[in-house]
Amino acid sequence: MEIKEMENVYKDIKKLNDIKLIVFDMDGVLLKNRNSWDVLIDKISGNKIKRDKMIYTFDYLYRHNIPAHLYNSLRSGNMARYLNLNDISPNLHMTMEEIKKMGIKTAIVSAGVHEFAEYLGTMYGFDYAIGNQIDTENMKIVKNVDPLKKDYNVRLIQKTFGIDKDETLSVGDSFMDLSMKRASRYFIAFNPSNVEMLKYSDFSVKSNNLFEIIKTIKWNIH
């Protein structure tokens, strides 16, 4: 029995060593703030909307839309300019450099603001980035990522790069991100919003320092 258990551990370590794709959530992982939609609405409203914090989640906006008068601000320029660079999680650059050295593909799959994900993807060299968008011409929200079905996006990325589930690791901070686990061999709970997530995660990082992800991967490889 003990020999069999050791064989299983060895197989798991070998599989981690063969990871070819890491998929990151954005809000609460790459960004310290857990809700980029709340950030965007707060910025374009000039911080003048009186509301309970975090009311403007993606689900809320998809159902109720953005207040019509705020679309004028969204037409005025690139929405990425509303991203606060101080909100980027510590050591993202160093983390991405280390992942590139390992020859691993990287992707962002977020129910947050697509322009934020796209900006981070370009700035830090992600191979793929997708979020939910605002169609300013038709004044509506476009759902590219269903928060509860992120595995769909992960599978599209895998198909694009010719990578399978056993070669994929995903990273998220919320219960909704666990949907990525359906298409991933491993899931890392990064600075989880709910301790209950730990029951369903393969590894956890209780910090907002992204480089702890690298330490977690290397520790479990070696």
TrEMBL record:
<dbReference type="GO" id="GO:0006564">
    <property type="term" value="P:L-serine biosynthetic process"/>
</dbReference>
<keyword id="KW-0028">Amino-acid biosynthesis</keyword>
<keyword id="KW-0718">Serine biosynthesis</keyword>
<dbReference type="GO" id="GO:0005737">
    <property type="term" value="C:cytoplasm"/>
</dbReference>
<dbReference type="GO" id="GO:0000287">
    <property type="term" value="F:magnesium ion binding"/>
</dbReference>
<protein>
    <recommendedName>
        <fullName>phosphoserine phosphatase</fullName>
        <ecNumber>3.1.3.3</ecNumber>
    </recommendedName>
</protein>
<dbReference type="Pfam" id="PF00702">
    <property type="entry name" value="Hydrolase"/>
</dbReference>
<dbReference type="InterPro" id="IPR050582">
    <property type="entry name" value="HAD-like_SerB"/>
</dbReference>
<dbReference type="InterPro" id="IPR036412">
    <property type="entry name" value="HAD-like_sf"/>
</dbReference>
<dbReference type="GO" id="GO:0036424">
    <property type="term" value="F:L-phosphoserine phosphatase activity"/>
</dbReference>
<keyword id="KW-0378">Hydrolase</keyword>
<comment type="pathway">
    <text>Amino-acid biosynthesis; L-serine biosynthesis; L-serine from 3-phospho-D-glycerate: step 3/3.</text>
</comment>
<keyword id="KW-0479">Metal-binding</keyword>
<keyword id="KW-0460">Magnesium</keyword>
<dbReference type="InterPro" id="IPR023214">
    <property type="entry name" value="HAD_sf"/>
</dbReference>
